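Final report, closing paragraph on structural work. Over the funding period we assembled a curated collection of sequence-structure pairs, and we close with a single example.
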Amino acid sequence: MFSMADVKTKVTLVGTVLAKQGVEFIYEGETAACETCKVKKACNNLQKGRKYRIVSVRSTHHECTVHLNGATAVEVMDAPITMLISPEMAIINSKIKPELSCNKSDCRSFPLCRPEGVVEGEKYIVADVIGNASDICEKGRSLKLVEIRPA
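Its predicted structure, as stored:
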């Protein structure tokens, strides 16, 4: 298991409505409306497709044409992601490239096999092995439920 000392944070701007400690979100990237904004670099300093958790809210506020009630400065960290992986990969503190090969979108386990926030081709660290999930795959694969974080 990793410690909080391992966690790196970053200051960014999010919509004021979302600026609450503990809120998790997937960064979707810059919009066309950001082109002329003087603080666009502060808003768009995260990695597209990655999942983040707000760890603290700052008092800095900016007017924003994209977000209702403007944008507020927050400190974020990469959010842990719960995922199903093969048992061979489910070793705490190991680096993995998750296999996102299942396309059975109607499967009840699909959100755990292809969770939002996992960027294809990126490396992750297995932070915790939650348990076996052998009976959960409709294709009959043997799987483990784990928590991962970006490497």
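The mean pLDDT is 90. The first strand starts at residue 9 and ends at 15. We thank the funder for supporting this effort.
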